[in-house]
Design brief:
By secondary structure, this protein is α+β, with helices and mostly antiparallel strands. The chain has helices spanning about 20-25, 85-100, 130-145, 165-180, 180-185, 215-230; strands spanning about 35-40, 70-75, 105-110, 115-120, 150-160, 200. The protein has one domain: Alpha-Beta Plaits (2-Layer Sandwich). The protein contains six helices and six strands; from the N terminus they run αββαββαβααβα. Strands 1-5-2-4-3-6 form a six-stranded antiparallel beta sheet. The longest helix has 18 residues, at about 85-100. The relative contact order is 0.21.
Length: about 240
């Protein structure tokens, strides 16, 4: 993530148009994504019942290993009122447990009044984002139910292709996600770094801040360390 003042103000109208951000990062090529829509049943599992109105589900291997997936989840009926500071802390808690349990990290998440976005990256070779999402949705729905809210069964995701996982293109996609509050008028132009419902989760690195000037350097060093050494530090002194 670049600092908010480092680029000129830009407004995007299409929620799937990340080309503008790619240009800001020095490339004019629009990042290519595998787009899909998953339907979850009442138990949180991926449902086998799809009709033609849904984007087709990708094969499970697209979500395994070092997959890069932009997840978008919506509150049922676009109902608003769930987004409160206490929910941010609960969201972070549940996401942290999910990242540790399934060997993943989340370099950016953004919570909006009726939906939210997360970028998940696999750390471990046996990471699998489908069961991770099932677990996360179930735990979050338990919390939302106490406030009379619930997630919609549909989850949308963009699975990044190899060419778009290179640093510049990937950083541009994350910046696009971070600017959602700006596009919705919830912050001033280039004020997205001040939005209090954004953040990141990297297992074992709570000090990382997604809008710090040195974030990406520290993130990739931390990610590489976790890839090499795993998530546990039992004998570390």
């Amino acid at each position: 993530m670049v600092s908010p003042g480092a680029i000129s103000p830009t407004v995007y109208n299409d929620a799937t148009d990340v080309a503008g951000v790619a240009r800001l990062r020095g490339t004019s090529r629009r990042p290519e994504l595998w787009r899909a829509q998953l339907l979850f049943d009442e138990r949180g599992s991926v449902s086998n019942s799809f009709d033609d109105s849904y984007l087709k589900r990708l094969e499970p291997e697209f979500y395994r290993g070092q997959a890069y997936v932009h997840w978008s989840l919506t509150i049922k009926d676009r109902k608003q009122g769930w987004l409160k500071p206490i929910m941010l802390y609960k969201f972070r808690e549940l996401l942290t447990h999910t990242m540790f349990r399934y060997g993943l990290c989340c370099p950016i998440f953004v919570l909006m009044p009726d939906h939210f976005h997360m970028m998940w990256i696999g750390i471990l070779d046996d990471a699998d984002q489908l069961p991770a999402m099932k677990h996360f949705r179930a735990r979050l729905n338990e919390t939302l139910a106490a406030l009379n809210f619930k997630l919609q069964p549909q989850a949308y995701e963009n699975v990044l292709k190899d060419d778009d996982r290179v640093e510049d293109a990937f950083h541009g996609v994350c910046e696009y996600i971070a600017r959602n509050p700006e596009r919705a008028g919830l912050t001033d132009v280039n004020g997205y770094a001040n939005y209090k419902y954004s953040g990141c989760i990297v297992p074992g690195y709570p000090e990382l801040k997604p809008f710090a000037n040195d974030f990406w350097g520290r993130f990739w060093r931390s990610y590489s360390y976790l890839r090499k050494n795993g998530l546990l530090r039992i004998n570390e002194t």
